[in-house]
Write a structure and sequence with these properties.
Elements lengths: L3 H4 L3 E3 L5 H14 L4 H6 L3 H22 E5 L5 E6 L8 H15 L3 H14 L6 E8 L8 H16 L3 E5 L2 H9 L2 E8 L6 E7 L1
Parallel strand pairs: 4-5
Antiparallel strand pairs: 1-2, 2-3, 3-4, 5-7, 6-7
Helix pairs in contact: 2-4, 4-5
Length: about 200
Amino acid sequence: MENMSESRKIILHAADPSPAALAAIVNTLAMAFQDDPAFAWILPDPEIRRARLPKIFRFLACEDFASGSVLHSPDMEVATLWRAPGRHKETPLGALRTQLTYLSLLRSATRRGDAVGKSMAAHHPAGRHHYLRFAGVEPQMQGKGWGGIAIKAGIDRAEADGLPIYLETATQSNVGLYRRFGFDVTAEWDVPNGGPHFWAMMSG
């Protein structure tokens, strides 16, 4: 029988994964964020959102393999996307590529997606830190501790570097979870024109 601690280890990917691993990471995150308030505001139609989120997360995951890393469980119950310290800002060329990609993926929802992105950038703190961009657990595995295991793995890595972790969330229930791991709310804001409410948090 597989040891429980072994089955719940977290794997760090700091380079391009295999196609199968990338597909599994994308699938976990797309399912986890189907009902996320920010994505639900950007793409209100659930079926459109279900069709486009895998493409969006494929792009985001590839970005983070280039400028950060991905932490996930062996069977992809949980996956987290990270930006390395000093790598959260895009170059002008990278920003143009991102804008064109989102225009292709979001289409008529591009303006809302841009509003969310600009509001997040406006509140991003200065200084060196690890940036937790996305953390998602497969819906059927939620409530079983996987999110906490992945967060703790990220905290251990940041503490080894002597740096804090910064994140944003548009899901209120996540705030209590992150507080239990030593994060404090550093800012709150609403995306203009009826957009979602965000909490910014930083580890102590």
